[in-house]
Amino acid sequence: MKLLLPIDPFQLTQEFGENPNMYKKFGLKAHNGWDIKTKYPDTPVGQRYIIAPQNVQFYKQSIDPPGYGIYFEVITKAKSLWKHTFAHCHSIETFTEKKQGESMAISDNTGNSTGAHLHWTVKKIKILNSQHEVQDYNNGYFGAVNPQEYVDEVRNYNGTQPMPNTNITIEGSLYEKLVGNSTKWDEMVKYLEISSDPASTSFEDVQRVVAGLKSRITDIQTQLGNTQAELENRMEQVSRLKEQVLNNDKLRGELIQKLSDTVSEQQGMVGVYEKRLKEIQGGLEAIARTKGELNKALLECKSQSTIEQLTIADVLVLLFNKLKQIKLK
Ligand SMILES: [Zn+2]
Questions:
Q1: Backbone angles phi, psi at 72, to 5 degrees
Q2: From ligand 1's centre to the CA of 31, what distance in Å?
Q3: What's the confidence (pLDDT) of residue 174?
Q4: Quick check: 153 and 79 in contact, CB under 8 A?
Q5: Which domain holds residue 29?
Q6: Does the pLDDT value for residue 313 go beyond 80?
Q7: Which residue, 285, 295, 286, 297, is CA-closest to 324?
Q8: What is the CA(213)–ligand 1 centre distance, in A?
Q9: Which of 117, 134, 168 is the last residue of a domain?
């Protein structure tokens, strides 16, 4: 049987069973699927069409911010029934069925994802008592198997491309019985604004309203995805601003250091000048003292010069002797 891969071109970035430590927090043995590259020159952000690998039936879509982000599930059929989960999406189309090769959604980077990629998990299921039952649920991956098993089964299976039909249908009589026994029916129908007369509300009316609600949920999920992307942008801006503030703080610290260095340098200079000033003052005092002694000596000389027999030469000798005495002190 022909098989298409969900992303074209197809390149794995993380294998099944890798990085056990990273997946412990999710209760998993290791990576529970395949991670597929979605960033290419024509989709630089990683928003690439997710293609139906076979004819698929829509099963579920939901949002899980700390894990899969925006994700959806479809059922395919080869020899077995398979349930596929595609995670970290940007948006999901509203559909109940898609033919092989048609696009189902657009990949992205929502949820627990460090970069844009498509996460693909496959589980083998069975229909049991009108319920989907995952096979080998306790295998450490909640039933997820290496997607290679699915790929091999489809490629080796000789059959036409079937549209899986796993709809759990409720028979008209059972529906009436359920409605008849329901105590909340009137309330629920009023809440859904289906009809003023709950008794005449048909199964189709309920289906139509629920389908409308489902598509509204999809819209809201898309909006949520956009908001999340914007939030991430804002967070990036905040961290950039934080970095700037830190840089400014560092710069301020450096300036303060430089200023205080300069001030202490100046204070050192003041000390040096004060010391010099003291030395100069000491010198001046010494000079003043010498000057006083010289004056005294001169006065003595003058008093002696009044005696007539002293010659000028004698006066000079006296003065010289006095000077010698001062020096000796
Ligand atoms: Zn993954």
A1: -145, 165
A2: 6
A3: 66
A4: yes
A5: 1-168
A6: no
A7: 297
A8: 30
A9: 168
What are residue 35's DSSP bridge partners? Answer: 14, 119
Q: What is the ipTM of this complex?
A: 0.99
Ligand 1 centroid – CA 35 distance (Å): 5
DSSP 15: -
Residue with tokens 């306790």: 138
Q: Which residues have CB under 8 Å from 305's CB, separation 6+?
A: 315
How far is the centre of ligand 1, averaged over its atoms, from the C-alpha of 223 (Å)?
A: 23
Alpha carbon of 112 to ligand 1 centroid (Å): 9
Residue 37 alpha carbon to ligand 1 centre in Å: 11
**Total structural domains in the chain?**
2
- Cα 205 from Cα 222, distance rounded (Å): 26
d(CA 154, ligand 1 centre) in Å: 22
Question: 58 C-alpha to center of ligand 1: Å?
Answer: 21
Whether 11 has a pLDDT exceeding 80, the answer reads: yes
Q: Residue 229 has what pLDDT?
A: 83
Distance (Å) from CA 97 to ligand 1 centroid: 25
Q: Please say which residue of 168, 199, 226 terminates a domain.
A: 168
Residue 297 falls within a domain, yes or no?
yes
